[in-house]
Design goal:
The complex is a heterodimer of chains A (321) and B (248).
Chain A (H helix, E strand, L loop, with lengths): L3 H12 L15 H34 L6 H19 L3 H22 L10 H22 L15 E3 L5 E3 H23 L1 H11 L1 H6 L4 H26 L7 H15 L4 H21 L4 H15 L11
Antiparallel strand pairs in A: 1-2
Helix pairs in contact in A: 2-6, 2-9, 2-10, 2-11, 3-4, 3-5, 3-9, 3-10, 4-9, 6-7, 7-9, 10-11, 10-12, 11-12
Chain B lengths: L3 E12 L2 E12 L3 E5 L6 H9 L6 E6 L2 E2 L5 H7 L1 E3 L12 H12 L8 H10 L15 H14 L4 E5 L7 H16 L3 E5 L3 H7 L2 E6 L2 E6 L1 H4 L3 H12 L7
Parallel strand pairs in B: 3-8, 3-9, 6-7, 7-8
Antiparallel strand pairs in B: 1-2, 1-4, 4-5, 9-10
The chains are: A mainly alpha (321), B alpha/beta (248).
Chain lengths: 321, 248
């Protein structure tokens, strides 16, 4: 981890444009420059979280052409599952991942087998409507059981731990861990898709469902495994979100939007693209917030619109149409 | 019935007013190579759909190795040992040629991936695709797609192989190579049903020929003999003479 820090630092210093800063000028920065550098660094690290939102979404769309409108609410659900786990067992939220990830994966498998597989067909609309309904149900159920109160998970000392990376710049251990996990998740998914039997099953089913069936693949099972994997990523994202910021039952749809924007910026079907998309949204939001606290979300959406206008297919498109 | 590996019993299927099959009985013997011919729209390909489980029959039963598989899913039938090729090749275009085979061999054959690599490489060699193993399947020429179609069906380790118009569009020496390959597969113990409009290729490779017309099997017997029957010549060959080309 420690080795990563100078690398990221060097990358930022040499590759980002900033008024008054040229490569190599790291020792003579003014306080203002450091603030900007810090803003961008925080944005990049936040982008890791958005990339995780996006990766689960992208995976499901890629394998079964299902747009999961409940994705954001499932992230929030995972946060509440973590909350219950932490309060019941008295463990650290990060430790609770050992329980939350399998629980969410199992939920994903069952959800797909029992409900979502029935909605899949030639028409894209039924899965949209059903996951929209699911979104409403999850929000209201959470409201019923946990009230509208804002909650947060406390991860202890790690939350305030930070690493000085010189030049007055410090980076929080937790955001850094979160970003490293996002990179690991995406690298892991990439490896799984292109190097394992399960990944080839995903790709074959995605390519041609009837033919995949004739090659011995049980589509219902393959789809359920894809959803289980997606919700495992969602669980990770949900816990990290809950440690990072306040959450309540209503914040799901906004997470869905961030995830969507990251997927589209990155280009459909490209996993590394979702990381780039997440980082772009994260940096835009951080810069927006720095200029004016009210511009936080707006800046992210504007960055998305600019990419959409200039490069509608996304930065690294893989799926056509 | 004990010696037959795949049996259709009183199979009926219609699409609206079009009768595809009207109480068809057909038995494929263990180790046999059976050819099916018939005019356009006679329902030959639909019979393959009924055998592989993608098309449910309106009535009748399908037996594999003595067991009733009429309601068995396509993926389970594949794992039992029924594989087919498509007239219009349908490779997994986003995957490499080798990966196409690996998926079929691993999931269709119920094996671990690393246990099928050698077999897949051998199949590529056998089907003339060895030098294109790492090409994207979507970028292959039609001939190579047809080869891949066959190789992928074989990769599932079938006991019954259903071939749908694999010789269409091939030139003479390619057809001869295909016939040799089919004979080789058959010699390894695989039973075969082959639908084909390229009749001379079919006659060279099969033991028995049936003619499907109007939802019924109107002729059956030794290929060279069946093809000369007046009713077959009239229904089937006549159409070919008129220049109406292959399709099912």
């Amino acid at each position: 981890m420690a080795a990563l820090v100078p690398a990221i630092h060097a990358l930022l210093v040499t590759t980002t444009w900033m008024p008054g800063i040229k490569p190599g000028m790291t020792t003579e920065r003014t306080g203002c420059d450091v603030e900007w550098l810090n803003t961008i660094l925080q944005g990049v690290l936040l982008g890791g979280l958005y990339a995780m939102f996006a990766a689960g979404l992208s995976l499901i769309f890629g394998v079964m052409r299902l747009v999961n409108i409940a994705h954001g609410d499932l992230i929030v659900l995972a946060a509440y599952v973590a909350l219950v786990t932490v309060e019941t067992l008295g463990i650290n939220p990060l430790t609770s991942l050992v329980i939350v990830v399998p629980v969410m994966a199992a939920l994903g498998y069952i959800l797909q087998r029992v409900l979502l597989n029935r909605t899949l067909g030639d028409d894209l609309l039924p899965p949209l409507l059903v996951t929209f309904g699911l979104s409403v149900i999850i929000q209201n159920a959470l409201l019923q059981f946990f009230t509208a109160d804002s909650r947060k998970l406390n991860a202890g000392d790690i939350e305030i731990a930070s690493i000085q990376i010189g030049g007055g710049l410090a980076v929080g251990v937790l955001p850094l861990l979160q970003f490293a996990l996002a990179v690991a998740v995406i690298a892991g998914l990439q490896w799984l898709f292109y190097r394992t039997a399960l990944g080839r099953a995903f790709r074959a089913t995605s390519d041609d469902q009837p033919v995949a069936q004739l090659m011995g693949l049980n589509n219902a099972h393959v789809f359920a495994l894809a959803m289980a994997l997606s919700l495992a990523v969602v669980a990770l994202a949900g816990v990290l979100l809950a440690v990072r910021a306040n959450f309540d039952p209503s914040i799901g749809p906004a997470r869905l939007i961030f995830g969507f924007e990251a997927v589209i910026i990155g280009g459909l079907g490209s996993l590394w693209g979702t990381l780039a998309g997440g980082v772009i949204i994260g940096v835009a939001q951080a810069i927006g917030a720095k200029l004016d606290p009210g511009w936080n979300l707006l800046a992210g959406h504007i960055a998305f619109l600019i990419v959409l206008a200039l490069r509608p297919q996304g930065l690294f498109p893989k799926v056509q149409g | 019935m004990t010696s037959s590996i795949l049996t259709l019993s009183k199979i009926s299927k219609r699409f609206g007013a079009v009768v595809i099959a009207d109480g068809i009985d057909l038995a494929l013997a263990q180790g046999e190579a059976l050819g099916i011919i018939g005019p356009n729209g006679a329902g030959k390909t639909t019979l393959f759909g009924i055998m592989t489980g993608t098309v449910p029959p309106d009535a009748g039963q399908v037996f594999f190795d003595g067991a009733d598989i009429t309601r068995t899913t396509p993926e389970r039938r594949c794992r039992m040992g029924i594989a087919r090729s498509f007239q219009i090749p349908q490779p997994f275009g986003g995957m490499t040629v080798f990966e196409n085979l690996v998926v079929a061999a691993a999931f269709g054959g119920g094996k671990r991936e690393r246990d099928v690599y050698a077999r897949c490489a051998a199949l590529l060699e056998q089907c003339g695709l060895a030098d294109r193993a790492n090409r994207q399947a979507g970028s292959l020429t039609l001939l190579d797609r047809k080869r891949l179609e066959l190789a992928r069906a074989l990769a599932t380790s079938p006991r019954v192989l259903l071939l749908d118009e694999v010789a269409g569009g091939l030139i003479e020496h390619e057809t001869a190579a295909l016939v040799a390959l089919v004979k080789e597969v058959r010699a390894s113990g695989v039973s075969i049903i082959w639908i084909e409009h390229v009749v001379h290729a079919l006659i060279a490779a099969v033991d028995r020929l049936v003619v499907l017309h109007g939802g019924a099997l109107i002729a059956e017997g030794a290929p060279a003999e069946v093809i000369r029957r007046p009713q077959v010549a009239e229904i089937y060959m006549g159409m070919e003479d008129l220049g109406i080309e292959a399709d099912a």
